[in-house]
Amino acid sequence: MTDLPPPVIHPAWLPPPTWRPLGSRRVRVDASGPFADTVRDEVSRACSLFGGSLSPAGGPADLILTLAPEDSGAAPRSVPDASDAAFRFGPAAPGAAPGFPAAGDGFRLGRRGTATVVTADGPSGLLYGLFEVIRRGEGAFDPALADEHHEPAFGLRVLDHWDNVDVHPVMGQVERGYAGGSLFWHAGRLRDDLTRVGDYARLLAASGINAVTVNNVNVHAGEAHLLTDRLGEVATIASIFRRYGIRVHLSIDFAAPVVLGDLPTADPLDPRVRRWWADTTDRVFATIPDFGGYLVKADSEGRPGPFTYGRTHADGADMLAAALAPHGAPVRWRAFVYNHRQDWRDRSTDRARAAHDHFAPLDGQFADNVILQVKHGPMDFQTREPVSPVLFAMRHTRQAVELQVTQEYTGQQKHLCYLPPMWSEVLGFRATGDSAPTLAERLSAGPAGSGSAVEGAASGRTAAGVLSAVANVGDDRFWTGHPLAQANLYAVGRLAWAPDRDPAAILDEWISLTFPDAPPRLRHTLHTLMDDSWRTYEHYTAPLGVGFMVRPGHHYGPDVDGYEYTPWGTYHFADRDGVGVDRTVATGTGFAGQYPAPWSDRYESLSSCPDELLLFFHHVPYTHVLHSGTTVIQHIYDTHFAGAQRVAEMQSAWQSVADLVDPDVHARVTGRLAEQHRSAEEWRDQINTYFHRKSGIPDAKGRPIH
Amino acid sequence: MTDLPPPVIHPAWLPPPTWRPLGSRRVRVDASGPFADTVRDEVSRACSLFGGSLSPAGGPADLILTLAPEDSGAAPRSVPDASDAAFRFGPAAPGAAPGFPAAGDGFRLGRRGTATVVTADGPSGLLYGLFEVIRRGEGAFDPALADEHHEPAFGLRVLDHWDNVDVHPVMGQVERGYAGGSLFWHAGRLRDDLTRVGDYARLLAASGINAVTVNNVNVHAGEAHLLTDRLGEVATIASIFRRYGIRVHLSIDFAAPVVLGDLPTADPLDPRVRRWWADTTDRVFATIPDFGGYLVKADSEGRPGPFTYGRTHADGADMLAAALAPHGAPVRWRAFVYNHRQDWRDRSTDRARAAHDHFAPLDGQFADNVILQVKHGPMDFQTREPVSPVLFAMRHTRQAVELQVTQEYTGQQKHLCYLPPMWSEVLGFRATGDSAPTLAERLSAGPAGSGSAVEGAASGRTAAGVLSAVANVGDDRFWTGHPLAQANLYAVGRLAWAPDRDPAAILDEWISLTFPDAPPRLRHTLHTLMDDSWRTYEHYTAPLGVGFMVRPGHHYGPDVDGYEYTPWGTYHFADRDGVGVDRTVATGTGFAGQYPAPWSDRYESLSSCPDELLLFFHHVPYTHVLHSGTTVIQHIYDTHFAGAQRVAEMQSAWQSVADLVDPDVHARVTGRLAEQHRSAEEWRDQINTYFHRKSGIPDAKGRPIH
Q1: Is A344 in CB contact (< 8 Å) with chain B?
Q2: pTM score, two decimals?
Q3: Which of A388, A680, B301, B653 has its CA 20 to 30 Å from the CA of residue B351?
């Protein structure tokens, strides 16, 4: 709280006070190259605020940032020069998985005499080491600081923007965006002032992200040209991100050879098509030497793809992989392929099965630099889904798990919903048994035989894993619409480094950074508000894993039957007797059988299926008794009354800290909580009324149902 | 069927062969003035096609069109000169109801010697007489032709276009339009080529229409300017319609004094506002001397209105009436006012009541030239509604009944749905008893004490009644998307002349005109396809008058619960036991009590309420037995299976006449029928499945329900 006018753009998790411990100390950067320059700039900025100094080479220092010596046996050490090419992929980079950045993100943090020392495994490690110091604040200078090596679990940590260049008449400028317009484009052209992109790059680097896809996976007519005649715009964006170790990716249109290249076909086996992609890709790398790679949504929800030409998705992906291979870059190929024109009357078709049905048979057919990008659940970013079985079915295929930071189905950044507890469950899921590797461990290990498994810090390799996440930012001055939704953006990078980290600890870290002067009362309130907000949201929305029940199209607010009779494959089959989707092998769609044991059995059996996924896997009577001891119908009533009530309590809690929060932030959050409360009551009443009208079973506690 | 290429624009009900009887005869026009010129032009065109001749004054004639002599005691006779002012309203016109065209639409048709003679009551009667001759064809020259006097039951017969100048991002260019873009505007400006507007004017005159509102009742920012700086565009349109006796009206924005006039208020009692409207209206009439009047949607679905200023709708309407009164023109003020942000949990509020609740207390407060425009039903143009009780509740207020020709809720011109049987029921409804006047008779009589009741041809007055209808045309080359939907457009004008005419006879008349060479097999097939198509549509959509159950927003296709939990006031309250809205006085919302006896009692009682409106007025168990002898649930199943089956039969019937229909017309209709069939099956299955899941009662005939 100051007397100065509030900053126009919220500083998110890098407000000036965060830099005080650094800015008031002597800092020495014993390295050269562009990242070292970026680090020096950061330190200089901090020092100008707080009076510290950047020490000259050999000068006195409280903090030293340096590169590991080449003979240390750690990461390959090559101080990059200032040219673009220094920060590029390359098959030549020893230890790098195909299509991955050369190693070097890791760093060792410890004390040497009276100084704290960051020893980076490679150039980018300097940056990440710097931000680790920032996160630790004064603690980084504790004489008792223990030596630690840090290395990201996922080598590629990418935020996928669903930004359009032009404002789409239905989807807006940012598809499923809830935070204003694009940071990159405005009024159909690249913004003249890209200052915020620089600020954004800095925030992302501080959270651990190292790649950004700049445009929507649904590539419309105008956006297709970013690959060719509008590539200069991408290069401009790349030049800003580059300073912070972030590579730029592009979503491409599979039909680009037709749309942009005047070819009569986009058949991936046609030599003309293959040449067009090779030439086009060469031009991309000639313009942007460190270009990150392609992202493709093909044969999905009306997008073009290889099916048009009777080819497989392996044919399609491998063609693009061949164009990218000379540059050592990957293509991410989305596994989100299903029949979106399903007949709701057809009970034998199950959208949950689709990705596995389509892709599992192709295992082994994808090139090394193809990354199959799989949504974390088998449906579509619902509040509660099982982990997609595709992520465990393709041992010979490199995969990315795709999370959704933008809150499409989780309250659209009007509702407070801290998502890392969900992501943590996904990344920690052990498909083949309670002592088996987690999903994160499996993804980090890469495909069987790839030789790129995580082998600890000593290996110096960059982990082969890929974590992708759909961004939640826009040109809103709080970045994410709901100021507290910044925590989701922050946490995705942090989980990509350390997927086993406790989401509550990440939350506290974010609170410390974002509210640097917060007294314990505010810290406690923020933690309490946010930590269980996902489960609160789950409580008042679609019950027990059944999903959807949202308004079609915009996906905000309840509509229990909204998708029940549509072609989208998203049904709950509620009738007067019961509800849920029978996905068992014995009597249902067989989806449960796509999991390896023991989960195939656990999901199959009504007695072992977890309560929170009961209606995802089983159709049960309303009187079915859950493991929790209550009936399904009473569980619905109880959780919906409790969820809405909890939101009212959140409002009160937030009001109680009005004196401790910047008025701008407080006002914005207050407005959002009011809408969340209205909406939660609407969810409560529609869900309860719907199931009461259907079941005829009264609430055991006699609360009002309409 | 000819070898010539088909005309680009379909001729609708005025194809060249229709003019053969006229064009091959000697025609004399014994009158002068603009309408006489229009008639001469029409005859000349016909003669040029078929070899007839326009006879000079005093020459030989098979057909004579003339004006009634002034001393006949019939209509006031004043041969207009060619100036615009000749065709204007005016308090001075003797016998005209305030705000109505001077009398003269009527005409006498009969034989004088060897000639057929049209003796027009006034100038416009020349036109209508000409088209009556066209309709009769050879029959008009039958020596045994009996003398008949024709006069319209409704003095003002107006088509309201919901055209936007600019394409609205959600609603498109024509709101609820299903036939392409606007006939008037394209790409944000008046079309350069207005040839089709001339053709349209001719078609409308031939059907009996005498006014057109050119823009959408939802007046957006751009369209508001049609009243002021873009008035020239309206004048251009008016100059085309004028030749066919059609006046142009404008939908206006109640907030225009603020939006266009830079006033701080639109308060209808503020002298500055009143002066602004008076001045603006004076300028409109200075530019368009025969301007028709204003149409206003105020305080409805987010439109501005007098409620903003704490004023009544009488205050608002009377202000505009005062501005129009010096020019003898009316304001039509829509009664479509209701709370569109209703809480669905609130069972005490009933949208059906809203218009009566708002307007009935204001009876007697409206100026003479205010016309309260009331949708025919209390809800919103559903497939089946009772007649709005507002139409019988305000004896001292001039009223218009508003029909919807555009098929918003009746299949959007993809489904074949001939609407006149519905309109005929509305216009023929006798609210106060089986021998009481029909709605049409009451409206034609005008308000109590207005002295403008229909008094037969001898009176020479123009009837005071107003029939308004929302247009269904666009720039589609068949005018109405579905070629057979032209019949709805044709019939609305015909019913406005003779509301007691049998809709089946109007259909045959339309068939004769549109398919002039049709052999009996085609005539029979068309008649059979179309005559009961409204009831077919009713069968497979929302049952028993309950309404809605459509997809929210676009209103096409089924979604039983789509509006059930929304703020729109459109509910069916289906639960596991029953369905319907209790609108009785005894136990429901009391809406039934808004009717006069005996209908208040008939609707109130379960035993006398007509089956087709049962669920509009009553909530009943699924096992309730209808007057038809079947249960509600079995009725739902039976009608839905039958309705979809009927559409399949319609497809077959249409195929069977492929050899008799212009291939273009046949192909278009074939495509529409295919979609209708798909959609009807979708309706059938969703409705049946929904109610089967809710009720648990199987179909007695064991047909497939999903």
Answers
A1: yes
A2: 0.91
A3: A680
